[in-house]
Amino acid sequence: MSEGTLYDKVWDRHKVTTLPTGQDQLFVGLHLIHEVTSPQAFGMLRERDLEVAYPELTHATVDHIVPTADQSRPYEEDAAEEMMAELEANVREAGIEFSDPTTGDQGIVHVIGPEQGLTQPGKTIVCGDSHTSTHGAFGALAFGIGTSQIRDVLATGTVAMEKQKVRKIQVDGELGEGVEAKDIILEIIRRLGTEGGVGYVYEYAGEAIESLGMEGRMSICNMSIEGGARAGYVNPDETTYEWLEETDYFQENPEKFEELKPYWESIRSDADAEYDDVVHIDADDLEPVVTWGTTPGQGIGITDPIPEPESLPAEKQDTARRAQEHMRVAPGETMEGYNIDVAFLGSCTNARLPDLRRAARIVEGRAVADDVRAMVVPGSQRVQKAAEEEGLKDTFEEAGFEWRNAGCSMCLGMNEDQLEGDEACASSSNRNFVGRQGSKDGRTVLMNPQMVATAAITGEVTDVRELPETEVTA
Amino acid sequence: MGDEIEIPEVDYVSGSGVPIRGNDIDTDQIIPARFMKVVTFDGLGEFAFFDLRFDDDDNQKDHPFNEDRFQDSSVMVVNSNFGCGSSREHAPQALMRWGIDAIIGESFAEIFAGNCLALGIPTVTADSETIEALQDWVDENPDGEIDIDVEAEEVTYDDETIDVTVDDAQRKALVEGVWDTTALMKSNAGAVRETARELPYVDDAAIPDAE
Description:
By secondary structure, chain A is of the alpha/beta class. Chain A contains 16 helices and 19 strands. Chain A folds into 2 domains: 6-266, Aconitase, domain 3 (2-Layer Sandwich); 289-471, Aconitase, domain 3. Helix content of chain A is 33%, strand content 16%. Chain B has 2 domains: 12-178, Aconitase, domain 4; 180-211, no CATH class.
């Protein structure tokens, strides 16, 4: 059993009692809700004549179904309008603050929480969304829950959980050019497997993690769930505090910053903390990672050959064969040169300002390849505005990208942004599951934002480090 | 308050089986996102595994959920990491509404298993050899009865009894009928407020008064 880790400390501070099932009842410090997984929970509450217990610790946004082109109301799609209207009615009745598109604060739930300072170290944070693990980047204990658990949290301010083991993932060394946080987490999932983290919480540590900004840390924690770990976190440090100080909450309540800092310091993992498992990764060895298959664990370095299914562990072979058939790739080849039809720059993994900046540097003065549909979907209205102010929108548009409004968009194809037929997509998102981007024959290749930008320019999966200067067309 | 609802104990499930083969079957496969544009879970059953069951022209493809012989099945037999990916409770809701009462598999993704528990659906595990043998048997015996004894952690079929594993908390919750946690946790409201007051980041104003 772990001892003295951030996980242990935050757990203990939030534990109300042990339930008869042996699970612990945990207090929830921040409950984020969105339009897809919450309406049924509010319905269950009404059936039982229950009220929202902690509305002030609850915050809503709309992200999954929101159109990213025309956002005028009513939404063109009836189902989307109905879900939005339902959320509006629910938050109004319960007195829950709602970052709707008219506020300028709307965006993907895992982008807006950190932006507004709602996400803080040492909080327990839940949301009906598996990528809630993102908020662990701030040293919060954050995990996704199902709709019945949303009902529990709404009605009681608590959630029933079993305590997990803690695996420390020590990432030493320094990332090379063109290699990003995304590549670290794709490598972790490739190495430990999509179910390697089941039963664990991941603590990301080491100099390669500490030298990342908050956005990079969020990209890593975000995809913990793709490795089977429901939560992942980074211990809070000066980088964390600098971010927090700039957020709305601490700008409006500056005295809280000094007041809470000792708490944040106190929940950091002790130097002599005990872990259930420790894994080492060397960042120096990493190159840009791309996926060749249909699970996030099926990744390889851009110059590495796609594995022979027979060379994989027995239980992975069948999945690999089916994935290679779906993706139409052959073992022994690299992913370089894989033709793409769509380039998607967005999602809760990689649609924050620095992500767009890095991609824009690649795109600047170049043009999107013929026949490639390229789009940028900023993670939030604030990211969108900031990017527009510093000229990134112009850079992308001049190159031939579409510039959209904030939302989940083509990460999961719940709005109009979807792959068609068997289109192949270079995507900065988090899941390459069959059908994930809206077409069951669609093919998704996950990669970092610079790599997405590069693929958009060349029309094929390309090593960003090899992008020749001669490609410059403008 | 009207929150006292009857929670049945789920200590025993029996029914015929349906094999769903393959590792890493994610919740996007179980219920594609486009069917989640709804504000209730009603009617999700017909969309379970939709893209695996139908082609672009809505013609049926080969899938156990399409086969007549499995239409009355209630025990699904799956392989490893079943239910990975999105946290959508729509996935177990769709399976339950299709008719699934219990799932036996090599392993389950955590959020999925938790969602199943919230619906009173046991997710019991056994090693891959045991699972594959059971899947083969179900294929040969689509009407054959499978009995799951949640408390004893045993599955019986064809005069054979195999040991399975049920997560401790899940077993207690199902056997004792406390898997619907809302009322149980609500009864601790006083202790919850105490915990909240001890947390430096929670404003007193956010903590409700005692009822």
